[in-house]
Fold each of these.
Amino acid sequence: MTDRVLMVTGGSRGIGAACVIGAAKAGYGRIALNYTRDAAAAEATAAAARALGAEVAIIQADVGVPEDITRLFAETDARFGPLTHLVNNAGITGRTGAFADADPAEIARVIDLNVTGALLVAQEAVKRMSTARGGGGGAIINISSMAATLGSAGEYVWYAASKGAIDSFTLGLARELAREGIRVNAVAPGLIATDIHDASGAVGRLERLAPSIPLARPGTADEVAQAVLFLLSEAASYTTGAVLKVSGGR
Ligand code: NAP
């Protein structure tokens, strides 16, 4: 079990942090925890995972910047050797609001991180995992969103579009890599209690939308992490190209 090497992008807070800690509990022995700004949160999450027995490398990198992705993988290789499992999680929404009023630079930043960044992170992972390239196989989980199918009208349609891209990418890549030892799946969280909502400027969003959810509450980051860990694991050995909704029925 300890020969697995897991990377979680955006692993310092929210869903990513829950994946890091959940993976440590599940026996992943070597975890590369990426973050970009909040070093204290990264340290706290790493400490929790180390207390569970995992070796954790904290690697600062903006995965919206290609050069940072190259460095993130080089540092992971040097510390742990080639990656076997990836949670492609880092993502932002931008400020909530009408599409016509959105700042074009912010739209570009969301696409750079949520789409281009996620694709380039997956590309580096595939180069290391593919049995056609000398790797030992692996599993990739892309973090999508229910926004991809709901559209996020009036909130952040550009973010919804970025996650729609992730759903298409997941299906295509899963089929492309099916005979190279790599399973590729996505998890589509619904309304999950993390900092991302306040960061979008939509303070009170969780409370406002909770009654519209069939299960009548927001989900937790841990509940998303459980789905991620299932898809990462051999328990999901026949599952590839799936987008698993974790959305309370939304
Ligand atoms: P969050 O609480 O805001 O945490 C975001 C994490 O990503 C932090 O660790 C942050 O690190 C990191 N990050 C942000 N920008 C980054 C960058 N450029 N490079 C590397 N790391 C970066 O967000 P979350 O709610 O857990 O969301 C995680 C994923 O789930 C995202 O892809 C999001 O779109 C998706 N999702 C969330 C929800 C929800 O309701 N929460 C629903 C559907 C989908 P720093 O602290 O260092 O910035």
Amino acid sequence: MKNFNRNTEQWQQLDRDHHIHPFTDPAQLNAKGVRVITRAEGSYIWDSEGNKILDGMAGLWCVNVGYGRSELIEAANRQMKELPYYNSFFQTSNQPQIELGRLLSGVTPEGFDHFFYSSSGSEANDTIVRLVRHYWEIKGQPSRKAIISRHNAYHGSTLAATSLGGMKYMHDMGGSLLPGFEHINQPHWYLEGGDLSEEEFGLARARELEDKINELGAENVSAFIGEPIQGAGGVIVPPDSYWPEIQRICTEYDILLVADEVICGFGRTGNWFGSETMGIKPDIMTLAKGLSSGYLPISAVALHQRVAEVLTAGGEINHGYTYSGHPVACAVAIANINFIRDNGLVEMVRDTTGPYLREGLRQLAERHRLIGEVRGRGLIYAIQLVRDKDEKMLFSADDEVGTKCRDHCFENNLIMRAVDQSMVMSPPLTISKGEIDELLEKLERCLDLTASELGLS
Ligand code: PXG
């Protein structure tokens, strides 16, 4: 690979010349130059300057088994040689795709037995938009079209997924909010709870779903979609009262309940699926990211029997992608699921590393003035940054506290993501206790640096 023999500056210039990055201001990035990641192992990545960086985000919430797993690499290699591609359109299938369905029906909650494959979380959610509407057409209720979601939800970046999501700045770009998508408020108690108890607030926010259904007419509503724990929105864990009430409302009005498990799935919250952690019994689940630990792009729509039996008896499904059920991606997903299961990663997150991180963050929050709240489950957490924790006073937007803290993390070789005034983390599920100690030490140092930059120490 002799063309790869360039120095960092040359890479940065070529990147400026030819690459447009997702969710990035090009001018701002080009002014400072991109960081070039060259290799990875376990919980660490390395950049082109030779820095070893602890990856507190598992890539983009996805590298659940950590980097460099030979089982996944060899599965891809074997399948590439055997059958690198064939489609699923011509009444054909391939062995990895069939085997993956069998495995998934074993690890998903009871009743999930049919899977539709695509290559990303966004495509899977687009698929869901089409399938839930098709479901109601088959059932003779074609007016059931509207889908209800939450403000500040993230469900992907295609046009339908953008509309499903509740990120206003995404809707605003190019008039991207399609008709037929409705949003209710998110269950973010710390920021929006006011004087209500957690329980009261959870019920109040869930009942916004009932109000919205009544406003639209249940005969016009097909589904409600939500992440068990909102990830990109800032790791928002709803109060205990929230999901049971959502479930009750969906059942009462006969609305399909979709759990977007793209981040929460495959062990992240200490169970195989976030729905189990939060006590949700969904009709449909979106799976991506941890399905292959990001080694290759693959996603799936998981259908409960009660939905699958309607769809499989309802005539032709006019939907699909060239890469639906890609054999190499499926082979990697199989190796990934086997790795998670054979190494007891879900149990480790639930019983060992998850509680260890939680306790470390709790202690850090006790002694650090910037942390107002710690929220999360398993190995997905956020710390809420505050100017004054006793008064529960936030920073002003001009303080750019999240960006400042994120930049300190970057400079100290820790990857963490800032969501507004929260710092979020989602490390590989294979992270060791020693690496969690390192993460916490670096985080504390970066919080100190952030506080002094803001004149607070
Ligand atoms: N649903 C959820 C819950 C997600 O988190 C998607 C769907 C879309 O998946 P794809 O594979 O199409 O990206 C996601 C993706 C961030 C960030 O900044 C999060 C995601 C993607 C990009 C950035 O935290 N999540």
Amino acid sequence: MNVLMIASEATPFAKTGGLADVIGGLPAALAARGEQVAVVIPDYRENFYPNPPAIAYRNLWIPIGPGFMTDLYQTTERGVTFYFVHCPPLFDRAGIYSSAGVAHPDNHLRFAVLSMAGLAVARYLFTPNIIHSHDWQAALAPVYLRDHFNADPTFIGVKTLLTIHNLGYQGIFPPEALSEIGLAPKLFNPDQLEFFGKLNLLKGGIAFSDAISTVSKGYAREIQTPEYGFGLEGLLRKRAPIYGVVNGVDYQEWSPEDDPFIARKYSVNDLSGKRLCKKALLTEYGFSTDLNRPLIGIVSRFASQKGFDLIAQIAPRLLEENISLAVLGSGDSDYEAMFRQLASAHPDKVGIRLGFDNPLGHRIEAGADMFLMPSRYEPCGLSQIYSLRYGTVPVVRATGGLDDTIDEDTGFKFRDYSGSALLEAVRSAIKVYRRKDDWTAMMQRGMRKDFSWSTAAAEYVALYQRLLAG
Ligand code: ADP
Ligand code: GLC
């Protein structure tokens, strides 16, 4: 099977969140099963290339907006061909989606060009059976395919799958953007791309794809309800079944046995290195090196999705507990300010590092005793699955993928979206932490869980096959 993926980020090239981890890991797992896989992402200014990419196609004209001349570059990583859309006016600038907290105003053009370039790869470089697009940034691919190229022989029998990684981001633009991205006014209707008078790119993808999936079974159910559907629950119910495939983990990158970023490597059978990792993290955050005090880690985008307002609600009571909190994140300035304030009022209990810092993310996974994700909603969540492997017990809100991946044997869950429910979960965790043998057993149960990509890859292959047969 030939699978062409289109997405806006992928490790190791460009990353702002879990989407990049998925587009780095899933194609490699599909390739390891013998599938042919190609991935198309933008050539952003900040892309990191382990090996310099080679030119694959010169002077590809994309007739979107004023028209854009692009070049396609390519490289191979773990058996997967990655194509990079090189278009300096759109991608050679600071910030992948935004700069200084403001979304780039031409994002509709930038990602329309990405989707079109993806279809050009299909026409000229890699003939797919399946076009698998991810999130709103690639949601126009199935729209253009069916609206512009349906008669093109390249696409005869080709099936499209759209995976929603986060319904909170839909790519909503003013109605005028419709003609700028080359779509006809007839598509601007409530069953297709119109959404309360605006243009909604994700909605277009949901309407035009052959199938829709998301990144856990729990989230697949939730997004068909008004509470989690962000206004698209009606269309999603109409397009049901919405498939749910829990993300895998790239254990080459996320394993304490083999992590180049941590103070001392360790494993499920020899946990001694974890104490050293904790000590190093306490020192790095300027906390006293009391190894008996539970250390809670947070590594996250700061966005309302992630639920940190619950911490603000209960901060005084939480900080009465004998704990410390090592935080790494960036995003909403409200959250940044809240953590900064807590850190300056309680320097021995709360430490905050602002920014995106992958090595520090690894050191927190390894050094913390507990990992906190009080998300308001969470499509899958990867950090809690990494935590399991590092013996860092997750404390999570029971929603979406957090509920699906963590159970009572491996972590602590709370259901109500409230500060008091969060506090109770943290207190339960602290109680078990005091019982060393029970705590170690819990860590080890988590460490033995296997969320390898091969499981998810097999589920995607079954889904692709079902689409091609249907
Ligand atoms: P989301 O995709 O919603 O941000 P996930 O849990 O799926 O949430 O994935 C988050 C990924 O991004 C993880 O790999 C996590 O380590 C990483 N990450 C998030 N924020 C930061 C940060 N400030 N610095 C380094 N890594 C981060
Ligand atoms: C999104 C979601 C996160 C998920 C990730 C990868 O960013 O917020 O829950 O793990 O995509 O699918």
Amino acid sequence: MTIVLEKIRRTLRQRSVAVCSAILVALAVVTAIVAPRMMSDPVAEITYSEFARDLGLGKVERVLIEEGGFTVHLSDEEAFVRLPGDLLSASYLDRLASSGVEVDFAKPGIDASGIAGFVVPLVLVVAVLALLAVQTDFNPAARWPRVIRNIPDRFDDVAGQNEPKAELQEVIAFLRDSEAFTKVGARIPRGLLMVGPPGTGKTLIAKALAGEAGVSFLAVSGSDFSAPLIGIAKSRVSKLFQQARKRAPCLIFIDEIDAIGRKRGGGGSAADREFESTLNQLLVEMDGFNTTAGVIVIGATNRVDVLDPALLRPGRFDRQVHIGLPDIAGREAILQVHARKVTLAESVDLSSIAKGTPGFSGADLGNLLNEAAIFAAREGNLAITRENLEAARNKVIMGLERRSLAVTREERRLVAVHEAGHALCACLTPGSDKVHSATIVPHGQALGLVMRLPDHDRHCIPVEKLEADLIVAMGGRAAEEIVFGPKRVTTGAASDIAHATDIARRMVTEWGMSSAIGMVRVSRSNDSFPPEVEREIRRIIEEMYAAAKTCIEHNRGALDTLVEALLERETIDGDEVRRIVSLADERMAA
Ligand code: ADP
Ligand code: ZN
């Protein structure tokens, strides 16, 4: 019943918008047609002969000389005679005057048709603007800011993120009963920032916060404040806070707050001034409402460092809640939340997927399950299988599999050798993460890929692991050199080299892992490091390259078997890689 009522109300409101629009359009059209007529000269035009006749009959009382001719005033009417200016000689005018006709010159005025040409577009523009205003103010669909009441989301819908959730409990309590807090004089935050990468659930958490507290949620985005017309952005800020005060207790959520709150540059352009006045308005509004109002503003951003310091001062956005990428346990929990909405085959193990998705955000994981469901549907599966999930993960990680990419047989062999080199080194170097899979199926920009997975998320990385990473990174090029010779190595190692250089550089300049440089932090000056630092970086990489070569030379049989397996099956999993390597080992021992 209430739904029906709501529907009727909405149609009515939309109807009134439609009526308003129609009237405005009609007005504009009528003005466009009528205005030029009203403005243009209503005086009839007569020929010179007619004028001469009237003059002869003594009917002409007055002539008004204008541009391009003159207006003739007869006793009962007026008429206009067109006459090129150079024919209106002084002697002619004298004769007119002496024959009893009053001769006068028109004031140079605005051309009537010129007025019409100016007024009509103006009227149209005003009409269109009015229409827009009507749309945004009365049309429920386009209403701004978006207000959501009775939010269904709760903290239970947010998987993991236990620390932020705990930090926000106090805010919930305040929104539920702000009086209890103010009575004892507790200081309540007005604004807080949620800081973290995209897709980590900042919006979701803010919504759930409003849901838990049972208050309205006013959602806007920083980009809403980059309006094309001067003054609109600023007035939107006022409107936002005015709405919030009306609906208190409530929560304002400003997504991408950096779009409105970035540092003021003090530039002189109109856009700069507009930006500053908008930001100033935000500051004024933040200062203006007192905490008893029961309004809390949450801003979301990935970068606090770009924000204007004035925004972070006490009483404004003076609290930060960090929302990070989920760890393995968090990823599994998020997968479980999203898995409620899809059907999974029994063989699917979400914890192993969680292990295989380091660096994924909550949004990425939602996307992964969605892609997997699409793969399953395409294959006609009733439930999502492990293979569907694997394919979806690869798709999410690297972009669509480019199986169709034309790779020559020779290139394919080259990629297989390169990847086998990575896989072999990863298998045999102590401290390396376990190989999860190796493939020569192109992914995104990469022609092949060896994926390794940690058993747990790492926060501190030991030297042993860094060196293992370097050996594994060098393994691709080392295998190419050993199998094809130094003259036939390829450009395929470019990203490996970039990655290795990065690690080695940080070992030397940031992590105190070079005895020659010692435990000091070295910075670039003029964009380069001192020569001894560059020497150390080079030495480390060369040593690791030599270690990779030794590893491969001593296990050439295993390398060749891996290459054949890759060429045959394109993708082999970690267990298979380990089996091949240990079998080759045994053969060596025998
Ligand atoms: P952000 O605002 O940080 O960019 P969102 O809140 O828009 O991220 O998250 C996008 C989507 O990702 C959410 O709608 C939700 O489906 C999913 N998601 C992100 N984090 C989580 C989480 N911790 N638990 C459940 N779902 C999550
Ligand atoms: Zn490589």
